[in-house]
Automatic annotation (TrEMBL):
This is YqaJ viral recombinase domain-containing protein. Pfam families: YqaJ. Residues 134-269 form the YqaJ viral recombinase domain. It comes from viral metagenome.
Amino acid sequence: MNPYKDLEDVTDKLIIQPLINAKDNQDAFVMACELINEYISSNILEYKSPYFHQDLIYSVEELMTLQLCETCFRDYPEELDLIISKASKHCFENNYPRRSYGDSSVRFNLSKNEISEKIQYLNNIPQADQRSNEWFLQRHKTLTASSIWKVFGTNSVRNQLIYSKCSPIDMKKYNRFNLESSLHWGQKYEDVSIAWYEREYKTNVSEFGCIPHRRLNYLAASPDGINTDPESQRYGRMVEVKNIVNRDITGIPKLEYWIQMQLQLEVCELRECDFLETRFKEYSNYEEFVLDGTFTRTKDNKQKGIMMLFLDSNRKPFYTYAPLDISKSELEIWTDNEMKKHENKNWLKNIYWRLDEVSVVLVLRNKKWFNEAIPYFEEMWDIIKKERISGYQHRAPNKRKKRKKSFDNEIITINDTNNITNNITNPIANTKCLISVKKIDSPVTVKSKIVKPKSSMNDEDIIMKVQDATIKDTDTIMKVNDDTNKDTDTIMKDSNSIIINIDTEIYSN
């Protein structure tokens, strides 16, 4: 028998009072918005930092905790965190753009006519092809997006930028190639990344050359690409590609990349940029490629593909890229066609790759940040113009001094290592030795001595006995006896004889 069966269930009728009343909640929200806006306006240049949002939230939380420590929020800090989070979202939706957004979503319905006019304007600007001699020359005459972050760097980094812009351009260095460098890796996979992006978002991306700023002619930028398909949702959106070699992909643009995109957006007068980061891995050979999953996907469903590497008559690398998701039979036809098309080049090898990791985040143009940064750009350009005339050699990097080779812990220092074998694996512990190398034309006889090294470890004695021996000009034998390692022989062979001076207390026989 249930004694509670006649009781009314009032669970749904219960009214739970909020921890913080509505007025206090609203007052805290207004305060948070004011503090966030004040922080941003006072620290607008700090947008460039990857930690901008973290620093902002920390600063606001600290101030509000101090100001509200005697109120109801003292006992409910999680409620204050929630209010600050809501205030932050409100401010970045209405007053300021976020530094970056976590995906590539379409956030605005932009005017197609307006975008078409901007793209037409860019197409009408005379511009050299990327990485051509004319392109390098044009970039040398301006502050460009890829290096302008150095304006905000250390004195050493700023000097590097000034020196590079004042020095005569060396075109020969652009004709030298290192197929293993991270720079070449990025260029090599840029077309593959763009092809993946075009297929992923059903769009077309066009490349542009070095574009000067409409008003500030000392600024220029070369965007990796711009969406130019009028039917695409991303029409008019810029694309910046980074093919990563050995760092983590976090989805948060590094300082130099964020500044680079801001100048690109400003120069092209566009609103949005997709920041595309990719990590490609290469297979050792064709067999490893075909054994990993299907012909176009890995076992864990990652994109696979093939490229061909040729060398032209100047031994400059040239790549051709197989279409994504090409079948095995289609690849054979494509390969034959490429070999015929490029018969004037030397085929080097096929490269088989997989797209191991990819990230796309949205970065918006930040006009307020750029306007705040202009005085710093102008100051840098004024210095460059002045020192191109007055002299810039004081900006040259310091030459590195050659260091003398030494063993670990400075136990043994060798002043002349040209002929002495470095294969000394067990130096005597707690003993400082100086080995001086001298040319000796005739054998030298060394009288025996018993020596006690200065030791700081439990006053343990290490007895070194150098036996009566004639040191010939072909080899020297040092015999070391101690309590823990008896009859250990170290043989050092060399065309020169050596004399050994040991910093010890000497005891006579």
